[in-house]
Structures are given as C-alpha cells and as structure tokens.
Amino acid sequence: MMKTIQGKFPAKLAAKLAALSTISLLAFATPLLAGTLDLSGRSDKDIEQDLTRKPVQIIDFVGVKKGDKVLDLLAGGGYYSELLSRVVGDKGAVTLQIPKAYLKYAEKALDVRLANDRLKNVTYLLSEADNLKLSENTYDSAFLVLGFHDMFFQDKGWDFTADEVMPQVLKSLKKGGKLLVIDHDAAENSGIRDVKTLHRIDSAFVKADLEKRGFKFIKTSKLLENDNDDHSKLVFVPELRRKTDRFVMLFEKI
C-alpha cells in the first residue's frame, strides 16, 4: 500500500497520508464514549470534578464496554462507580468497595449516591483487607483511583496493605482483565517515602511493584499530568487540590 501512495504523491505528503490512515484505524479500534456517555443528572460536585478528572477519556483508556463487570476498589464516595454503571448498562455490574475506615469520609456522599436504589447495577461492598469478599475470575476490569498509596502505610484505624489486598484483586479479575491505577505522583526515585506525609507514590515504584505481583503493564497516559506540580507538597493544599500531577497506568492479568 505504501508503494502505491509513494508512486502518486511526494514523499512527505505520502508520509502524512499514511499517518492519517493509521490514526483513523486507531480511532475506530478505540471505544468512543464522547457524546454517548450521559454526564447529566449527577451532583454539582461530580460535574465540577469532571474537568480535572477527565472520566470519559479515562474510561475509554481502560476500554470498559456494555455488559462488563467492574470493580471500583477503594471507591470513596463513588464518583467512578456511578459513571461506570452508565457505561456497563443493565447487563453489566459494578462493585463499589470501601473499608469501614472510609465511612467517616464517604458515608454521606454514598447515602446520596445510592439513595432509593438509583444505581441498580451497583453493589455496595463494605469489606476489609483480610477478606475483600471478591468472587474469583469475575471482573473485566478494576479501577483503583487515588488509593494505591494508602496501601503502603499503617495507622490507627487503618490497615489495608497491598500485600493482603492485591493478590485478592488479581484473583478477582478474569484472564485478560484490566487494572487501572491512578495516583498522585511523587519525586523521582522516592519509592514509598511520601505515601503518608504527602499522599504521593513514585510511579516507577508502582509499575515495578505491580509487575512483581503478577500484573502485566500495558500502557500509560499523560491525561492527568500537571507539570506545575513539583511533587514536594501535600496533595490537599488548596492550590493543588484535585489538580496534582497524576500518573495513569493500565495493567492486565495474564
């Protein structure tokens, strides 16, 4: 095909046409939620967060589709659970998981979000690290958004370690199932040094750690990068709140 193109057009133009052709093929091969995912009928707070969280692009990045079963691990107030419930539809299912320690931060938001059984395909799962109560070989994908760093420190009332949790998550995924990890990036080569003090974790550490646990790294995205974040500040300071430099990684169970 390239020989035919080059025979008719100048080399530079031929290269551009070939690139455009490749982009077009990739576009059709990628799930396109833009324009099809209804973002309305949600809280003002959720809609406000859409601007910096870019949920449509993130869900597209994972490749979630109708009929899928998705685990929203450490789901907080359920921001992603509600959106995922719309994507997977009536034949799909979403598990919204949190431990009891999250209730003081998320209970009010969850009460509103789940009131009157408004998300019929979402199951609310309150479970702890020693037994997440996840069925094996069940999920097409798992979302772990801004929670992985919390698995590397223990505190009074908080004990949710990666060593206990991630083997269960791996077993709960189907073969080929995807794991999305989004978190606040930390200084280069800092590992888990800042997980408690700044709520940040080094992206290189995350990749290496999950590969050791049996997850295959697939791809990363720059969707949530912020070059103005120098990684030295607590993620909750006003100027960085919901605007931190966040890495986006996708892994697979093989």
Automatic annotation (TrEMBL):
Q: Which residues form the signal peptide?
A: 1-29
The source's domain of life comes to: Bacteria
Pfam annotation, one family: Ubie_methyltran
One example of the protein's molecular function in GO is: methyltransferase activity
User: Which UniProt keyword terms apply here?
Assistant: Methyltransferase, Signal, Transferase
One GO biological-process annotation of the entry reads: methylation
What is the protein named?
Answer: UbiE/COQ5 methyltransferase
Native organism is Colwellia psychrerythraea (Vibrio psychroerythus)
